[in-house]
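Subject: design request, 417 residues
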């Protein structure tokens, strides 16, 4: 049945209109444009009181300012259907301290960042003994402790990314909080150790909360970085600020060619706290975003797009900003990591303590979002596709907001049907 959309109190800010291009990104400096597409679908993924299971229709397409019909999908807030249920095949790492970033190396091993300790730890690859085989692997080995990390609140050592040209340029990229700001650095990885950090981008606003921190290389070879508004919503609409943005950088940290604003790393703006980034096979960038008190969001990211914060939270139906493809009450999601696999986006929920599957096709939602592992493993932080096609999913129960169990935090290996 219909669910009312609430955007909360509006703050008056200057909203700068843009004409977003198609969201697809391909190899080369400039984004792919394919003309006008129907804008992203929006669905309210909500449970108001008791959930009444039933069949509901798909939500019509919606663009900036267009009206939507918002429905509560069958199964929201409970485990999804068996046909798409991932199977927990094993635990690849235990005893981690607030794991955050996760990135795979060409040898199929993985690096994981611990937010509060500043350590980077290595997990053997799926082909190595004790990892990815369905058994318990124990504690991973420490690679290094990144200098200059100032942990506290939601800040610390956050996202990791591995250079696409790692065989020739063995760089590991990290997003970290210092005493003054958030920044992007890179380090050479040789002989199982990390070199000294090279600062590529500094001056990203930092605070106790809303630091963003996710990074991903796109099919164009550029580095995409999600940032938070650092508890100041005006940062999100100020295109001179690096806060509340998705940034697009060259591998050397410069504003990437083809960015929408001259000499700027800003790719999109009007974000509150982006902690999940993923590309689909069509080169489209998706982002998961924390709301404040009302709605969390899944957004299809378009070049130069304004996503409305702080004037809008969730679907706003405002021609000056882009609406989310899906939204959830903050109790059901608080989304962090995001990955694409088998025709769907998989989104890890912290407060929601569940793994969401959102089917997508050609830049649109292709079915109702469904939840899995609800409450089974506690807070979920990062989801990533491993070289063997499985999903690696990290818990976040030692981050000060969870209830750790023996062995936490851990990384699970999930097999898709």
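Subject: RE: design request

Done. Sequence follows.
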């Amino acid at each position: 049945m219909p669910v009312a959309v609430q955007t909360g109190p509006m703050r008056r800010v200057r909203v700068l209109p843009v004409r977003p291009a198609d969201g697809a990104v391909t190899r080369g400096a400039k984004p792919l444009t394919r003309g006008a597409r129907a804008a992203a679908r929006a669905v309210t993924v909500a449970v108001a009181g008791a959930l009444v299971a039933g069949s509901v229709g798909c939500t019509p397409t919606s663009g900036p300012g267009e009206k939507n019909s918002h429905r509560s999908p069958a199964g929201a807030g409970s485990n999804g259907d068996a046909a798409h249920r991932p199977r927990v095949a094993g635990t690849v790492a235990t005893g981690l301290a607030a794991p955050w970033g996760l990135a795979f190396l060409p040898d199929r091993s993985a690096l994981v960042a611990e937010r509060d300790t500043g350590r980077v730890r290595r997990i053997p690859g799926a082909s190595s003994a004790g990892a990815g085989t369905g058994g318990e692997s124990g504690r991973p080995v420490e690679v290094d402790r990144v200098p200059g990390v100032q942990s506290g609140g939601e800040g610390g050592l956050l996202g990791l990314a591995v250079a696409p040209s790692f065989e020739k340029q063995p760089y590991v990229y990290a997003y970290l909080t210092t005493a003054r700001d958030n920044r992007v650095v890179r380090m050479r990885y040789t002989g199982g150790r990390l070199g000294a950090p090279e600062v590529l981008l500094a001056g990203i606003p930092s605070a106790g909360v809303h630091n963003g921190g996710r990074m991903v290389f796109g099919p164009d070879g550029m580095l995409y970085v999600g940032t938070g508004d650092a508890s100041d919503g005006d940062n999100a609409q100020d295109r001179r600020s690096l806060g509340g943005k998705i940034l697009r950088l060259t591998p050397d940290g410069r504003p990437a060619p083809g960015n929408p604003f001259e000499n700027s790393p800003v790719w999109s703006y009007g974000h509150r706290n982006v902690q999940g980034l993923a590309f689909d096979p069509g080169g489209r960038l998706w982002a998961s975003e924390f709301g404040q008190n009302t709605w969390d969001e899944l957004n299809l990211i378009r070049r130069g797009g304004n996503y409305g914060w702080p004037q809008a939270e969730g679907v706003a139906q405002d021609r000056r900003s882009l609406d989310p493809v899906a939204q959830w009450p903050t109790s059901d999601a608080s989304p962090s990591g995001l990955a694409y696999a088998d025709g769907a986006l998989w989104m890890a929920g912290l407060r929601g303590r569940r793994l969401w599957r959102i089917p997508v096709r050609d830049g649109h939602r292709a079915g109702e979002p469904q939840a899995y592992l609800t409450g089974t493993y506690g807070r979920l932080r990062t989801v990533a596709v491993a070289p063997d096609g499985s999903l690696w999913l990290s818990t976040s129960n030692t981050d000060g907001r969870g209830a750790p169990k023996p062995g936490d935090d851990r990384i699970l290996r999930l097999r898709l049907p």
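The chain has one domain: 60-415.
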